[in-house]
Backbone:
């Protein structure tokens, strides 16, 4: 069986061209948040490249861009928006790989392949927003109320689509979804692997909590009388780490991330702290157990210190096992492109494939990240490894027919 005739030089040229939209001048870093000027310019350029490849372009109401063939087809892609301080490959690799495989399939007369760049995967407004709305895990009305760090809502940002926006596509037109991505972790790079075939994407829970204390003068308020919200957070963090230790595995991760301290002044006892707690694991049962521990610990700490507690509705994404048929094709493609130099592995990062698993069979392929670096201007992968991934993807599509 002859593998689809992908063009590595054309693929790399397009990948570098996409990097020019939002280029920071710091290494290969990019700043291309969802609906930014750079993001929309990149999507318009991508639409042009899709049309040149003989694909019909379609923007859905959330701004996700599809390059379509007629009739049922395999869908390949990822996202082209970036973190505020982002790397050039996160998401972009999967989009351009999808474009190149779809283009090669057009030139070869089949098999039918469409491609996609989802919008707001990186979470300027939500989490994997474009694919979440399409998959029905988030309504468009709810999504429109989400605010970015600058206070702009997704609904306001979507107005920038103008006449580009069309209807949501019927997912039944697609036979499955493949997503190629950088690993974003150190395993392949450290072990000398060329490719990783994903077995499952971990689940995620995210809670936003607020500890409410009493704001007061930092010089005159005695320690025994204080209701210091930040000290409550410090105690919560220490206690939570101790309690999680008895439940987690080496693959479990948890992070206290976005912290807002009020009034955040050097001479004022903090009266309020708002923060996020996120944890990820491949077991739904373990995710539940960790949530119970987190909620109980927060209640206990606040009760001990006289603090009020608010907990916002949680974000929840279940672990997703890859489709056996699509995964087997990727394994065959990996062996074709990198004999003996690939491995099966989990994904600790979230991807659009998580949402699409509600709509169709999904599978994922990883290439190494140098030093395990991602979400940083220093993110990089050798061009040799990028091309190896492209060849494996093309071989998988050929095997699927």
Residues:
């Amino acid at each position: 069986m002859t593998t689809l005739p992908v063009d590595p030089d054309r693929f790399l040229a397009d990948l570098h061209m996409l990097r020019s939209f939002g280029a920071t001048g710091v290494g290969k870093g990019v700043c291309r948040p969802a609906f930014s000027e750079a993001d929309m310019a990149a999507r318009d350029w991508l639409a042009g490249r899709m049309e040149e490849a003989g694909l019909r372009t379609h923007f859905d109401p959330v701004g996700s861009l599809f390059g379509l063939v007629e009739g049922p087809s395999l869908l390949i892609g990822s996202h082209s928006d970036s973190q505020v301080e982002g790397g050039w490959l996160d998401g972009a690799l999967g989009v351009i790989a999808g474009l190149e495989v779809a283009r090669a399939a057009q030139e070869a007369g089949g098999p039918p392949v469409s491609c996609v760049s989802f919008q707001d995967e990186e979470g300027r407004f939500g989490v994997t927003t474009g694919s979440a709305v399409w998959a029905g895990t988030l309504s468009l009305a709810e999504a429109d109320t989400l605010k970015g760090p600058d206070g702009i809502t997704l609904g306001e940002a979507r107005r920038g689509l103008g006449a580009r926006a069309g209807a949501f596509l019927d997912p039944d037109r697609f036979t499955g979804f493949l997503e190629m991505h950088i690993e974003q972790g150190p395993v392949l790079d450290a072990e000398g692997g060329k490719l990783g075939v994903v077995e499952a994407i971990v689940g995620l829970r995210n809670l936003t909590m607020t500890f409410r204390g009493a704001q007061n003068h930092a010089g005159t308020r005695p320690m025994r009388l204080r209701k210091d919200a930040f000290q409550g957070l410090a105690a919560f963090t220490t206690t939570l780490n101790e309690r999680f230790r008895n439940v987690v595995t080496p693959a479990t991760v948890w992070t206290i991330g976005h912290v807002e301290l009020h009034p955040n002044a050097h001479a004022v006892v903090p009266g309020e702290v708002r923060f996020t707690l996120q944890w990820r694991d491949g077991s739904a049962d373990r995710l539940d157990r960790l949530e119970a521990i987190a909620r109980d610990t927060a209640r206990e700490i606040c009760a001990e210190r006289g603090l009020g507690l608010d907990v916002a509705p949680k974000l929840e994404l279940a672990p997703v096992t890859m489709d056996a048929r699509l995964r087997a094709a990727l394994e065959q493609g990996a062996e074709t492109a990198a004999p003996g130099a690939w491995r099966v592995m989990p994904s600790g990062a979230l991807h659009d494939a998580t949402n699409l698993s509600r709509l169709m069979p999904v599978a994922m392929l990883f290439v190494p990240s140098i030093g395990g670096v991602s979400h940083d201007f220093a993110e990089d992968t050798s061009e040799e490894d990028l091309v190896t991934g492209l060849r494996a993807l093309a071989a998988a599509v050929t095997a699927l027919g």
In short: The radius of gyration is 23 Å. Residues 152 and 339 are 49 Å apart (CA to CA). The longest strand covers residues 203-212.
